[in-house]
Amino acid sequence: MTSMAGVVVVGGGQAAFSVVSTLRASGYAAPVTVFAAEPHLPYQRPPLSKKAHTEPEGLRVELVPESFYRERNIDLRLGDDVVALDTAAATVVTRTGARVPYAHLVLATGARNRPLPVPGAELDGVHALRSLDDALTIGRALTTARDVVVVGGGFIGLELARVALARGARVTVVELADRLLSRAVSRELELPLRERHEHAGVRVLTGTGVRALEGPGRVDRVVTDREVLAADLVVYGIGAIPRDDLAREAGLAVDDGVVVDEQLRSVTDPRISAVGDCARHPHPHAEGLVRLESVQNAIDQGTLVGRRIAGSPASYESLPWFWSDQGDLRLQIAGLRSPADEVRLVPGDSPERLAGYAFRDGLLVAVETLNWPAEHLAARRLLERRTPVLAGDLAGTTLGALARARRAAEVRA
Amino acid sequence: MPTVIFQLPDGTERKVTAASGTALMQAAVSNGVPGIVAECGGNASCATCHVYVDAAQSGLAGPPNDVEDEMLDFTAAERRPTSRLSCQIHLSDALDGLVVHVPEEQV
Ligand SMILES: Cc1cc2nc3c(=O)[nH]c(=O)nc-3n(C[C@H](O)[C@H](O)[C@H](O)COP(=O)(O)OP(=O)(O)OC[C@H]3O[C@@H](n4cnc5c(N)ncnc54)[C@H](O)[C@@H]3O)c2cc1C
Ligand code: FES
Protein backbone atom coordinates (compact mmCIF):
# COMPACT_ATOMS: atom_id res chain seq x y z
CA MET A 1 0.00 0.00 0.00
CA THR A 2 2.62 2.53 1.04
CA SER A 3 4.95 1.49 -1.79
CA MET A 4 2.10 2.33 -4.18
CA ALA A 5 1.71 5.74 -2.58
CA GLY A 6 5.08 6.99 -3.79
CA VAL A 7 6.39 10.52 -3.37
CA VAL A 8 4.26 13.64 -3.09
CA VAL A 9 6.01 17.01 -3.52
CA VAL A 10 4.33 20.23 -2.42
CA GLY A 11 5.54 23.27 -4.42
CA GLY A 12 6.44 23.64 -8.07
CA GLY A 13 9.65 25.66 -7.98
CA GLN A 14 13.37 25.08 -8.41
CA ALA A 15 13.67 22.69 -5.45
CA ALA A 16 10.58 20.65 -6.36
CA PHE A 17 11.92 20.21 -9.89
CA SER A 18 15.27 19.09 -8.55
CA VAL A 19 13.60 16.45 -6.35
CA VAL A 20 11.46 14.92 -9.07
CA SER A 21 14.03 14.99 -11.86
CA THR A 22 16.56 13.34 -9.51
CA LEU A 23 14.06 10.69 -8.41
CA ARG A 24 13.51 9.55 -11.97
CA ALA A 25 17.16 9.89 -12.98
CA SER A 26 18.01 7.67 -9.98
CA GLY A 27 15.65 4.95 -11.12
CA TYR A 28 12.83 5.58 -8.65
CA ALA A 29 9.81 3.83 -10.20
CA ALA A 30 6.87 4.43 -7.83
CA PRO A 31 4.35 7.26 -8.43
CA VAL A 32 5.63 10.84 -8.21
CA THR A 33 3.09 13.65 -7.82
CA VAL A 34 3.81 17.38 -7.64
CA PHE A 35 1.25 19.89 -6.38
CA ALA A 36 2.17 23.36 -7.64
CA ALA A 37 0.09 26.37 -6.66
CA GLU A 38 1.05 28.48 -9.67
CA PRO A 39 -0.49 27.82 -13.09
CA HIS A 40 2.95 27.84 -14.78
CA LEU A 41 5.39 25.01 -15.42
CA PRO A 42 8.18 25.09 -12.80
CA TYR A 43 10.43 28.01 -13.72
CA GLN A 44 13.59 29.87 -12.73
CA ARG A 45 13.20 33.02 -10.67
CA PRO A 46 16.59 34.73 -11.16
CA PRO A 47 15.76 36.12 -14.62
CA LEU A 48 12.57 37.74 -13.24
CA SER A 49 14.48 40.59 -11.63
CA LYS A 50 17.24 40.72 -14.24
CA LYS A 51 15.66 40.17 -17.65
CA ALA A 52 11.87 40.00 -17.46
CA HIS A 53 11.56 43.71 -17.90
CA THR A 54 13.95 44.10 -20.78
CA GLU A 55 12.59 41.17 -22.74
CA PRO A 56 8.99 40.71 -21.61
CA GLU A 57 7.95 39.09 -24.91
CA GLY A 58 10.80 36.63 -25.29
CA LEU A 59 10.93 35.62 -21.64
CA ARG A 60 11.32 31.84 -21.43
CA VAL A 61 11.91 30.86 -17.85
CA GLU A 62 10.49 27.36 -17.51
CA LEU A 63 13.08 24.83 -16.41
CA VAL A 64 12.00 22.12 -18.86
CA PRO A 65 9.04 21.68 -21.19
CA GLU A 66 5.88 19.82 -20.23
CA SER A 67 6.99 16.74 -22.16
CA PHE A 68 9.81 16.22 -19.64
CA TYR A 69 7.28 15.41 -16.91
CA ARG A 70 5.06 13.36 -19.20
CA GLU A 71 7.92 11.23 -20.50
CA ARG A 72 9.05 10.48 -16.95
CA ASN A 73 5.58 9.75 -15.63
CA ILE A 74 5.69 12.65 -13.18
CA ASP A 75 2.15 13.70 -12.29
CA LEU A 76 2.39 17.50 -12.30
CA ARG A 77 -0.75 19.17 -10.93
CA LEU A 78 -0.46 22.85 -11.76
CA GLY A 79 -2.70 25.36 -10.04
CA ASP A 80 -3.70 22.97 -7.26
CA ASP A 81 -2.25 23.80 -3.87
CA VAL A 82 -2.03 21.60 -0.84
CA VAL A 83 -4.05 23.10 2.00
CA ALA A 84 -3.43 20.58 4.80
CA LEU A 85 -1.23 17.66 5.81
CA ASP A 86 -2.62 14.70 7.69
CA THR A 87 0.60 13.19 9.00
CA ALA A 88 -1.18 10.44 10.96
CA ALA A 89 -2.81 9.14 7.78
CA ALA A 90 0.22 10.13 5.59
CA THR A 91 -2.06 12.07 3.25
CA VAL A 92 -2.18 15.56 1.77
CA VAL A 93 -5.39 17.48 1.20
CA THR A 94 -5.62 19.80 -1.80
CA ARG A 95 -7.73 22.87 -2.50
CA THR A 96 -9.93 20.88 -4.86
CA GLY A 97 -10.61 18.45 -2.01
CA ALA A 98 -8.47 15.56 -3.25
CA ARG A 99 -6.80 13.42 -0.56
CA VAL A 100 -3.57 11.90 -1.81
CA PRO A 101 -1.52 9.40 0.20
CA TYR A 102 2.26 9.47 0.30
CA ALA A 103 5.03 7.07 1.25
CA HIS A 104 7.29 10.10 1.45
CA LEU A 105 6.33 13.79 1.44
CA VAL A 106 8.64 16.61 0.34
CA LEU A 107 7.85 20.20 1.26
CA ALA A 108 9.31 22.59 -1.34
CA THR A 109 6.99 25.51 -0.78
CA GLY A 110 9.59 28.28 -1.04
CA ALA A 111 9.08 31.70 0.47
CA ARG A 112 6.73 34.66 0.18
CA ASN A 113 7.63 38.32 0.26
CA ARG A 114 7.57 40.15 3.54
CA PRO A 115 4.71 42.64 3.18
CA LEU A 116 5.51 46.35 3.32
CA PRO A 117 4.14 47.47 6.70
CA VAL A 118 3.28 51.09 5.87
CA PRO A 119 0.07 52.91 4.97
CA GLY A 120 -0.58 53.02 1.25
CA ALA A 121 1.11 49.71 0.44
CA GLU A 122 -2.13 48.57 -1.23
CA LEU A 123 -2.24 51.48 -3.72
CA ASP A 124 -2.09 50.84 -7.45
CA GLY A 125 1.44 51.10 -8.77
CA VAL A 126 2.98 49.36 -5.74
CA HIS A 127 4.44 45.92 -6.42
CA ALA A 128 6.57 43.20 -4.93
CA LEU A 129 8.41 40.70 -7.11
CA ARG A 130 8.36 36.97 -6.51
CA SER A 131 6.45 35.27 -9.33
CA LEU A 132 6.46 35.30 -13.10
CA ASP A 133 3.13 37.13 -13.03
CA ASP A 134 4.65 39.82 -10.78
CA ALA A 135 7.54 40.21 -13.21
CA LEU A 136 5.24 40.65 -16.18
CA THR A 137 3.19 43.25 -14.28
CA ILE A 138 6.30 45.21 -13.29
CA GLY A 139 7.66 44.89 -16.81
CA ARG A 140 4.51 46.49 -18.22
CA ALA A 141 4.56 49.24 -15.59
CA LEU A 142 8.14 50.07 -16.54
CA THR A 143 7.10 50.96 -20.09
CA THR A 144 5.60 54.22 -18.81
CA ALA A 145 7.18 54.76 -15.37
CA ARG A 146 9.30 57.91 -15.04
CA ASP A 147 10.02 57.98 -11.31
CA VAL A 148 10.68 54.59 -9.74
CA VAL A 149 11.22 54.16 -6.02
CA VAL A 150 12.70 50.86 -4.90
CA VAL A 151 12.08 50.11 -1.24
CA GLY A 152 14.80 47.81 0.08
CA GLY A 153 18.46 47.70 -0.92
CA GLY A 154 18.80 43.93 -1.13
CA PHE A 155 19.55 41.76 -4.16
CA ILE A 156 16.14 41.96 -5.80
CA GLY A 157 15.84 45.70 -5.12
CA LEU A 158 19.22 46.50 -6.63
CA GLU A 159 18.67 44.26 -9.63
CA LEU A 160 15.33 45.95 -10.27
CA ALA A 161 16.83 49.40 -9.76
CA ARG A 162 19.28 48.76 -12.58
CA VAL A 163 16.60 47.28 -14.83
CA ALA A 164 14.41 50.37 -14.28
CA LEU A 165 17.37 52.65 -14.95
CA ALA A 166 18.07 50.81 -18.19
CA ARG A 167 14.44 51.38 -19.14
CA GLY A 168 15.01 55.13 -18.80
CA ALA A 169 13.42 55.84 -15.42
CA ARG A 170 14.79 57.97 -12.60
CA VAL A 171 15.49 55.53 -9.78
CA THR A 172 15.83 55.99 -6.03
CA VAL A 173 16.61 53.11 -3.67
CA VAL A 174 15.43 53.64 -0.09
CA GLU A 175 17.04 51.40 2.52
CA LEU A 176 16.39 51.45 6.25
CA ALA A 177 19.78 50.00 7.24
CA ASP A 178 22.83 52.22 7.10
CA ARG A 179 24.10 50.37 4.04
CA LEU A 180 23.03 48.24 1.08
CA LEU A 181 22.89 44.42 1.19
CA SER A 182 23.52 44.57 4.91
CA ARG A 183 22.84 40.91 5.61
CA ALA A 184 24.44 39.44 2.52
CA VAL A 185 27.61 41.35 1.67
CA SER A 186 30.51 42.67 3.73
CA ARG A 187 30.76 46.37 4.48
CA GLU A 188 34.10 46.40 2.65
CA LEU A 189 32.59 45.26 -0.64
CA GLU A 190 29.41 47.26 -0.17
CA LEU A 191 31.25 50.56 -0.47
CA PRO A 192 32.59 50.07 -4.01
CA LEU A 193 29.34 48.40 -5.01
CA ARG A 194 27.32 51.39 -3.86
CA GLU A 195 29.68 53.79 -5.62
CA ARG A 196 29.19 51.93 -8.86
CA HIS A 197 25.42 52.05 -8.56
CA GLU A 198 25.52 55.77 -7.83
CA HIS A 199 27.93 56.35 -10.68
CA ALA A 200 25.52 54.55 -13.02
CA GLY A 201 22.80 56.96 -11.92
CA VAL A 202 20.89 55.25 -9.12
CA ARG A 203 20.13 57.54 -6.18
CA VAL A 204 20.74 55.62 -2.94
CA LEU A 205 19.24 56.72 0.39
CA THR A 206 20.47 54.50 3.22
CA GLY A 207 19.46 54.89 6.86
CA THR A 208 16.09 56.03 5.57
CA GLY A 209 12.72 54.59 6.52
CA VAL A 210 9.58 54.72 4.42
CA ARG A 211 6.65 56.14 6.41
CA ALA A 212 3.84 56.05 3.88
CA LEU A 213 2.93 55.69 0.24
CA GLU A 214 0.42 58.26 -0.94
CA GLY A 215 -1.67 59.08 -3.96
CA PRO A 216 -5.20 59.30 -5.25
CA GLY A 217 -5.83 55.57 -5.68
CA ARG A 218 -2.57 55.27 -7.54
CA VAL A 219 0.73 55.94 -5.83
CA ASP A 220 2.35 59.29 -6.69
CA ARG A 221 4.69 59.91 -3.77
CA VAL A 222 6.72 58.11 -1.13
CA VAL A 223 7.05 59.78 2.26
CA THR A 224 10.37 58.89 3.90
CA ASP A 225 12.02 59.99 7.16
CA ARG A 226 13.95 62.57 5.18
CA GLU A 227 12.02 63.74 2.18
CA VAL A 228 9.04 63.11 -0.02
CA LEU A 229 9.91 61.34 -3.28
CA ALA A 230 7.84 61.55 -6.45
CA ALA A 231 6.94 58.06 -7.66
CA ASP A 232 4.76 56.56 -10.36
CA LEU A 233 6.01 53.04 -9.62
CA VAL A 234 7.10 51.61 -6.28
CA VAL A 235 8.73 48.20 -6.07
CA TYR A 236 9.62 46.74 -2.73
CA GLY A 237 11.86 43.88 -1.73
CA ILE A 238 12.35 43.80 2.01
CA GLY A 239 13.01 40.13 2.55
CA ALA A 240 11.16 36.84 2.35
CA ILE A 241 9.30 34.67 4.82
CA PRO A 242 9.46 30.88 4.44
CA ARG A 243 6.17 29.22 3.58
CA ASP A 244 6.12 26.84 6.53
CA ASP A 245 2.49 27.23 7.60
CA LEU A 246 1.40 23.76 6.36
CA ALA A 247 4.13 22.18 8.45
CA ARG A 248 3.31 24.29 11.50
CA GLU A 249 -0.39 23.49 11.29
CA ALA A 250 0.45 19.79 10.99
CA GLY A 251 2.47 19.97 14.21
CA LEU A 252 5.96 19.67 12.68
CA ALA A 253 8.86 21.58 14.25
CA VAL A 254 9.08 25.00 12.61
CA ASP A 255 11.40 27.91 13.37
CA ASP A 256 11.40 30.44 10.54
CA GLY A 257 11.39 27.44 8.19
CA VAL A 258 10.70 23.72 8.54
CA VAL A 259 13.36 22.34 10.89
CA VAL A 260 15.18 19.38 9.33
CA ASP A 261 18.19 17.19 10.17
CA GLU A 262 21.43 16.86 8.18
CA GLN A 263 19.66 14.57 5.71
CA LEU A 264 16.90 17.20 5.34
CA ARG A 265 14.22 15.10 7.10
CA SER A 266 11.75 16.83 9.38
CA VAL A 267 13.05 16.42 12.93
CA THR A 268 9.46 15.58 13.91
CA ASP A 269 8.47 13.12 11.18
CA PRO A 270 11.10 11.23 9.15
CA ARG A 271 8.57 10.54 6.37
CA ILE A 272 8.63 14.26 5.55
CA SER A 273 11.53 16.23 4.07
CA ALA A 274 11.86 19.95 3.38
CA VAL A 275 14.10 21.51 0.73
CA GLY A 276 14.94 24.94 -0.65
CA ASP A 277 13.84 28.31 0.72
CA CYS A 278 11.39 26.77 3.22
CA ALA A 279 13.93 24.53 5.04
CA ARG A 280 16.01 25.36 8.12
CA HIS A 281 18.90 22.94 8.35
CA PRO A 282 22.28 22.15 9.85
CA HIS A 283 25.31 22.87 7.64
CA PRO A 284 28.97 22.11 8.24
CA HIS A 285 29.92 25.68 7.24
CA ALA A 286 27.47 27.28 9.68
CA GLU A 287 27.08 27.54 13.42
CA GLY A 288 23.57 26.46 14.34
CA LEU A 289 20.81 26.05 11.78
CA VAL A 290 20.58 28.10 8.58
CA ARG A 291 17.96 28.83 5.96
CA LEU A 292 19.38 29.71 2.56
CA GLU A 293 17.58 31.37 -0.32
CA SER A 294 19.51 30.46 -3.44
CA VAL A 295 19.28 28.43 -6.60
CA GLN A 296 22.32 26.37 -5.61
CA ASN A 297 20.73 25.44 -2.30
CA ALA A 298 17.39 24.55 -3.92
CA ILE A 299 19.07 22.35 -6.57
CA ASP A 300 21.50 20.62 -4.24
CA GLN A 301 18.95 19.97 -1.50
CA GLY A 302 16.46 18.61 -4.02
CA THR A 303 19.13 16.34 -5.48
CA LEU A 304 20.11 15.05 -2.04
CA VAL A 305 16.52 14.22 -1.06
CA GLY A 306 15.74 12.67 -4.45
CA ARG A 307 18.77 10.40 -4.14
CA ARG A 308 17.99 9.53 -0.54
CA ILE A 309 14.44 8.45 -1.38
CA ALA A 310 15.82 6.44 -4.30
CA GLY A 311 18.16 4.65 -1.92
CA SER A 312 21.42 6.65 -1.56
CA PRO A 313 21.35 8.67 1.68
CA ALA A 314 23.90 11.42 2.41
CA SER A 315 24.33 14.47 4.62
CA TYR A 316 23.87 17.94 3.19
CA GLU A 317 27.19 19.75 2.95
CA SER A 318 27.30 21.52 -0.43
CA LEU A 319 29.28 24.73 -0.42
CA PRO A 320 26.74 27.59 -0.53
CA TRP A 321 27.12 29.95 -3.47
CA PHE A 322 25.09 32.80 -4.88
CA TRP A 323 25.09 35.30 -7.71
CA SER A 324 23.28 38.54 -8.46
CA ASP A 325 23.45 40.58 -11.67
CA GLN A 326 22.86 44.26 -11.00
CA GLY A 327 23.18 46.04 -14.30
CA ASP A 328 26.83 45.70 -15.29
CA LEU A 329 27.77 44.36 -11.85
CA ARG A 330 28.02 40.62 -11.40
CA LEU A 331 28.20 39.92 -7.70
CA GLN A 332 29.05 36.37 -6.62
CA ILE A 333 29.48 34.89 -3.18
CA ALA A 334 31.06 31.54 -2.29
CA GLY A 335 30.88 30.20 1.27
CA LEU A 336 29.13 31.58 4.34
CA ARG A 337 30.50 34.77 5.87
CA SER A 338 29.52 35.93 9.33
CA PRO A 339 29.62 39.57 10.47
CA ALA A 340 32.67 39.09 12.70
CA ASP A 341 34.87 37.78 9.86
CA GLU A 342 37.71 39.95 8.67
CA VAL A 343 37.42 40.97 5.02
CA ARG A 344 40.34 41.95 2.80
CA LEU A 345 39.56 43.61 -0.55
CA VAL A 346 41.81 42.67 -3.44
CA PRO A 347 41.74 44.45 -6.80
CA GLY A 348 41.39 42.31 -9.90
CA ASP A 349 43.40 42.44 -13.10
CA SER A 350 41.08 45.07 -14.57
CA PRO A 351 39.43 48.09 -12.93
CA GLU A 352 35.93 46.64 -12.85
CA ARG A 353 37.05 43.51 -10.99
CA LEU A 354 37.26 43.18 -7.26
CA ALA A 355 37.34 40.39 -4.68
CA GLY A 356 36.74 40.36 -0.92
CA TYR A 357 38.33 37.50 1.00
CA ALA A 358 36.65 36.77 4.35
CA PHE A 359 38.83 35.18 7.04
CA ARG A 360 37.80 33.64 10.34
CA ASP A 361 40.66 32.91 12.75
CA GLY A 362 43.04 33.43 9.84
CA LEU A 363 41.28 30.85 7.62
CA LEU A 364 39.47 31.72 4.39
CA VAL A 365 35.73 31.03 4.83
CA ALA A 366 34.01 33.02 2.08
CA VAL A 367 34.79 35.03 -1.03
CA GLU A 368 32.79 37.87 -2.57
CA THR A 369 33.61 38.93 -6.12
CA LEU A 370 32.51 41.68 -8.46
CA ASN A 371 32.68 40.98 -12.23
CA TRP A 372 35.19 38.20 -11.69
CA PRO A 373 33.58 34.79 -12.30
CA ALA A 374 36.90 32.97 -12.63
CA GLU A 375 38.02 34.11 -9.18
CA HIS A 376 34.62 33.06 -7.82
CA LEU A 377 35.03 29.59 -9.31
CA ALA A 378 38.56 29.28 -7.95
CA ALA A 379 37.16 30.16 -4.52
CA ARG A 380 34.48 27.50 -4.86
CA ARG A 381 37.00 24.84 -5.81
CA LEU A 382 39.26 25.68 -2.85
CA LEU A 383 36.48 26.09 -0.28
CA GLU A 384 34.63 22.98 -1.44
CA ARG A 385 37.60 20.74 -0.80
CA ARG A 386 37.97 22.29 2.62
CA THR A 387 41.73 22.41 2.20
CA PRO A 388 42.69 25.29 4.45
CA VAL A 389 43.63 28.58 2.78
CA LEU A 390 45.45 30.87 5.22
CA ALA A 391 45.52 34.65 5.06
CA GLY A 392 49.27 34.38 4.44
CA ASP A 393 48.76 32.13 1.41
CA LEU A 394 46.97 35.03 -0.27
CA ALA A 395 49.55 37.74 0.35
CA GLY A 396 50.13 39.38 -3.02
CA THR A 397 48.29 36.73 -5.01
CA THR A 398 44.76 35.78 -6.05
CA LEU A 399 42.79 32.62 -5.40
CA GLY A 400 42.88 31.88 -9.10
CA ALA A 401 46.67 31.89 -9.08
CA LEU A 402 46.75 29.87 -5.87
CA ALA A 403 44.31 27.28 -7.25
CA ARG A 404 46.36 26.94 -10.44
CA ALA A 405 49.56 26.53 -8.45
CA ARG A 406 48.02 23.91 -6.17
CA ARG A 407 46.63 22.01 -9.11
CA ALA A 408 50.01 22.05 -10.86
CA ALA A 409 51.63 20.74 -7.66
CA GLU A 410 49.04 17.93 -7.48
CA VAL A 411 49.76 16.95 -11.07
CA ARG A 412 53.49 16.82 -10.36
CA ALA A 413 53.04 14.77 -7.15
CA MET B 1 16.79 22.53 -36.91
CA PRO B 2 20.29 21.37 -35.98
CA THR B 3 20.76 18.02 -34.24
CA VAL B 4 23.52 17.53 -31.70
CA ILE B 5 24.74 14.43 -29.94
CA PHE B 6 25.67 14.24 -26.25
CA GLN B 7 28.01 11.37 -25.35
CA LEU B 8 27.44 10.50 -21.71
CA PRO B 9 30.08 9.22 -19.28
CA ASP B 10 28.30 5.84 -19.08
CA GLY B 11 28.95 5.30 -22.78
CA THR B 12 25.39 5.99 -23.98
CA GLU B 13 24.49 8.87 -26.27
CA ARG B 14 21.54 11.28 -26.54
CA LYS B 15 20.49 12.91 -29.78
CA VAL B 16 18.80 16.29 -29.36
CA THR B 17 17.23 18.57 -31.95
CA ALA B 18 16.68 22.25 -31.14
CA ALA B 19 15.96 25.51 -32.94
CA SER B 20 18.85 27.63 -34.21
CA GLY B 21 19.80 30.24 -31.63
CA THR B 22 19.15 27.91 -28.69
CA ALA B 23 22.09 27.60 -26.33
CA LEU B 24 23.54 24.09 -26.34
CA MET B 25 23.05 24.06 -22.55
CA GLN B 26 19.35 24.87 -22.97
CA ALA B 27 18.94 22.14 -25.57
CA ALA B 28 20.46 19.66 -23.11
CA VAL B 29 18.39 20.77 -20.13
CA SER B 30 15.11 20.89 -22.07
CA ASN B 31 15.65 17.32 -23.13
CA GLY B 32 16.72 16.08 -19.75
CA VAL B 33 20.28 15.21 -20.78
CA PRO B 34 21.87 14.17 -17.47
CA GLY B 35 25.12 15.79 -16.35
CA ILE B 36 24.41 19.34 -17.56
CA VAL B 37 23.50 20.99 -14.27
CA ALA B 38 23.42 24.65 -15.41
CA GLU B 39 22.86 26.13 -11.96
CA CYS B 40 23.04 29.72 -13.17
CA GLY B 41 20.64 29.19 -16.06
CA GLY B 42 23.13 30.17 -18.74
CA ASN B 43 24.65 33.28 -17.27
CA ALA B 44 28.32 32.27 -17.46
CA SER B 45 28.39 32.32 -13.66
CA CYS B 46 28.61 28.71 -12.56
CA ALA B 47 30.60 26.49 -14.98
CA THR B 48 28.24 23.56 -14.29
CA CYS B 49 27.40 23.24 -18.00
CA HIS B 50 30.91 22.17 -19.02
CA VAL B 51 31.28 19.94 -22.11
CA TYR B 52 34.10 18.63 -24.30
CA VAL B 53 33.53 19.22 -27.99
CA ASP B 54 34.48 16.11 -29.96
CA ALA B 55 38.15 16.42 -30.91
CA ALA B 56 37.38 15.92 -34.60
CA GLN B 57 35.02 18.92 -34.53
CA SER B 58 36.80 21.40 -32.33
CA GLY B 59 36.93 23.93 -35.15
CA LEU B 60 33.18 23.79 -35.61
CA ALA B 61 32.17 25.31 -32.29
CA GLY B 62 34.98 27.84 -32.21
CA PRO B 63 37.07 28.98 -29.23
CA PRO B 64 35.69 30.06 -25.83
CA ASN B 65 35.13 33.78 -25.22
CA ASP B 66 37.44 35.58 -22.77
CA VAL B 67 35.41 35.21 -19.58
CA GLU B 68 34.53 31.63 -20.46
CA ASP B 69 38.18 30.88 -21.14
CA GLU B 70 39.18 31.99 -17.63
CA MET B 71 36.28 30.12 -16.05
CA LEU B 72 37.22 26.88 -17.79
CA ASP B 73 40.35 26.70 -15.65
CA PHE B 74 38.14 25.95 -12.66
CA THR B 75 35.60 23.42 -13.88
CA ALA B 76 34.93 20.43 -11.62
CA ALA B 77 36.19 17.95 -14.22
CA GLU B 78 39.63 18.58 -15.79
CA ARG B 79 39.94 21.20 -18.50
CA ARG B 80 40.91 19.91 -21.93
CA PRO B 81 41.78 21.81 -25.12
CA THR B 82 38.21 21.18 -26.35
CA SER B 83 36.46 22.34 -23.16
CA ARG B 84 33.55 24.78 -23.54
CA LEU B 85 30.70 26.07 -21.41
CA SER B 86 27.65 24.79 -23.24
CA CYS B 87 25.61 27.90 -22.35
CA GLN B 88 28.04 29.91 -24.47
CA ILE B 89 27.57 27.79 -27.62
CA HIS B 90 24.56 28.82 -29.69
CA LEU B 91 23.15 26.32 -32.15
CA SER B 92 23.01 27.04 -35.84
CA ASP B 93 22.76 24.96 -38.99
CA ALA B 94 26.55 25.03 -39.16
CA LEU B 95 26.60 23.05 -35.90
CA ASP B 96 24.27 20.32 -37.19
CA GLY B 97 25.81 16.98 -36.20
CA LEU B 98 27.96 18.42 -33.42
CA VAL B 99 29.13 15.80 -30.93
CA VAL B 100 29.96 16.80 -27.36
CA HIS B 101 31.11 14.71 -24.41
CA VAL B 102 29.58 15.28 -20.98
CA PRO B 103 32.19 15.16 -18.19
CA GLU B 104 31.95 12.89 -15.13
CA GLU B 105 31.32 15.74 -12.70
CA GLN B 106 30.04 19.32 -12.78
CA VAL B 107 29.98 20.40 -9.16
C1 LIG C 1 13.09 37.78 -8.24
C2 LIG C 1 14.03 36.76 -7.68
C3 LIG C 1 15.37 36.72 -8.11
C4 LIG C 1 16.25 35.78 -7.61
N1 LIG C 1 17.55 35.78 -8.07
C5 LIG C 1 18.41 34.84 -7.60
C6 LIG C 1 19.76 34.78 -8.08
O1 LIG C 1 20.18 35.59 -8.88
N2 LIG C 1 20.57 33.80 -7.61
C7 LIG C 1 20.13 32.86 -6.70
O2 LIG C 1 20.90 31.98 -6.32
N3 LIG C 1 18.87 32.90 -6.23
C8 LIG C 1 18.00 33.87 -6.65
N4 LIG C 1 16.72 33.90 -6.16
C9 LIG C 1 16.32 32.91 -5.14
C10 LIG C 1 15.91 31.60 -5.77
O3 LIG C 1 15.08 31.83 -6.88
C11 LIG C 1 15.20 30.75 -4.72
O4 LIG C 1 16.10 30.52 -3.66
C12 LIG C 1 14.71 29.44 -5.29
O5 LIG C 1 13.75 29.66 -6.29
C13 LIG C 1 14.12 28.59 -4.18
O6 LIG C 1 13.49 27.46 -4.72
P1 LIG C 1 12.27 26.78 -3.97
O7 LIG C 1 11.83 25.67 -4.84
O8 LIG C 1 12.64 26.55 -2.57
O9 LIG C 1 11.15 27.90 -3.94
P2 LIG C 1 10.35 28.57 -5.18
O10 LIG C 1 11.18 28.55 -6.42
O11 LIG C 1 9.91 29.85 -4.63
O12 LIG C 1 9.13 27.59 -5.38
C14 LIG C 1 8.14 27.34 -4.41
C15 LIG C 1 6.84 27.06 -5.12
O13 LIG C 1 5.95 26.41 -4.24
C16 LIG C 1 4.63 26.85 -4.49
N5 LIG C 1 3.82 26.59 -3.28
C17 LIG C 1 3.92 27.19 -2.08
N6 LIG C 1 3.02 26.67 -1.21
C18 LIG C 1 2.34 25.71 -1.89
C19 LIG C 1 1.28 24.80 -1.54
N7 LIG C 1 0.75 24.79 -0.31
N8 LIG C 1 0.80 23.95 -2.49
C20 LIG C 1 1.34 23.94 -3.73
N9 LIG C 1 2.35 24.78 -4.11
C21 LIG C 1 2.84 25.65 -3.20
C22 LIG C 1 4.82 28.30 -4.79
O14 LIG C 1 3.73 28.80 -5.54
C23 LIG C 1 6.13 28.33 -5.58
O15 LIG C 1 5.91 28.27 -6.96
C24 LIG C 1 15.81 34.85 -6.65
C25 LIG C 1 14.48 34.88 -6.19
C26 LIG C 1 13.60 35.82 -6.70
C27 LIG C 1 12.17 35.85 -6.20
S1 FES D 1 24.93 27.47 -17.16
FE1 FES D 1 26.11 28.47 -15.65
S2 FES D 1 27.94 28.87 -16.74
FE2 FES D 1 26.74 27.84 -18.21
TrEMBL record, chain B:
Q: Which cofactor does it need?
A: [2Fe-2S] cluster
Q: Which UniProt keywords apply?
A: 2Fe-2S, Iron, Iron-sulfur, Metal-binding
The cross-references to Pfam families, in alphabetical order and at most eight, read: Fer2
Among InterPro entries, the record links this protein to: 2Fe-2S_ferredoxin-like_sf (IPR036010), 2Fe-2S_ferredoxin-type (IPR001041), Adrenodoxin-like (IPR001055), Beta-grasp_dom_sf (IPR012675)
Enumerate the PROSITE patterns for this protein.
Answer: 2FE2S_FER_2
Which residues belong to any copy of the 2Fe-2S ferredoxin-type domain?
Answer: 2-106
Family, according to the entry, reads as follows: Belongs to the adrenodoxin/putidaredoxin family.
Q: What is this protein called?
A: 2Fe-2S ferredoxin
Q: Which species does the entry assign this protein to?
A: Streptomyces achromogenes
